[in-house]
Design a protein that fits this description.
371 residues; 2 helices; 46% strand
Amino acid sequence: MRTSLEIVASALLLFGSMIEGAGAQVPSPEKSLQPLWELNLGKPIYGIALSSRGSCIAMATDDEVDVRDRTGHPVWEWNFRSMNRYIVAGRMAVSPSCDMVALNGDPGYRYTWIAHRDGRRMSIRSKSTPLGLAISHHDNLVAIGTGGGSLSLYAADGKLRWRRVLMDGAPIGADLSFSEDDKAILVHSISALLSINGDIKWVNWSSNMRAARDLKTFIASREPPHGPGLGLIIALDQNGKELWMKVSSLPEAAISLSGDKIASWVNDNQDPTEEDGYHPDDQEGEFQILSRRGDVLKTLPIEGRPIAFSSDGHHLLIMKPPDLSLFDLEGNPLWRIPVSDRSGVITTGNLKVILVYDRGGQGLSWFEPNN
């Protein structure tokens, strides 16, 4: 004869089997994600880029460019030091096909190089420091932004298509990108949108701009350039017009690909005084998921810098050392990657590849969360 404890245990097992048979999923506990591979070049990495498809990575040291596939194996390299001893490696971009890279110099070396796997090399001189850099999804165009406020578009053979000055002396920083259809160029550092023909659609003069896939919704931020003050997160429409803004002591935001969700830390006090700006760390707030209209969809019990939404908009990647974590929209952590304050993170738009590296360091780790 069975004891009452055995009867209860059997009932629980039966109940669990019924749930499993009905297709219910029991959330797995948070786990520490392991890299598929790691690499240490044994010398500092000055430039690093991940292809938009996640098919390769390109790295620049003080003497060469090293391109590797998604397994970490070498694809091709360019020893630029043997060709020109003056080349200085800075920011990088790599084409989706992995057959072309672009490499920026620095304030003392105002050149950008375009290098092809087949051996073709061409240099482009800038009047001011080259900063922003992007390669189109069709491998045929290179965009270069400079510290002097110019944005230029070149063909893959180094021929100039057009040059525009958005504002003389206003730096166009490192974060440039092409729209998925290559019909527009996004200048994330100053929140600007240009057509592929060079027409300036709009400029908002905010920072850290992120865009929905259809380019109808954007999120950006502003912070006081000098002295005390609180930041803002700002939603923009397809014409660069401000939809709404919210006060944030941590003014960084992520936007879903469909543009229906925006994630950011938002302060409770949305009408701060000048005195409040002298005490930004004393401001209370919460992490919110907002709609395009600015309505609060959810509040999450998390902290950190939002990196990106998953492609379906159901998960959110958050950076808060010592962890880089993926959360669902109930605030449950799904997995974590150990990081430090010096860690840089690059991801593909669908979060299928996540690259973690040490800024100024010699190595990196390649993660594929779904593998």
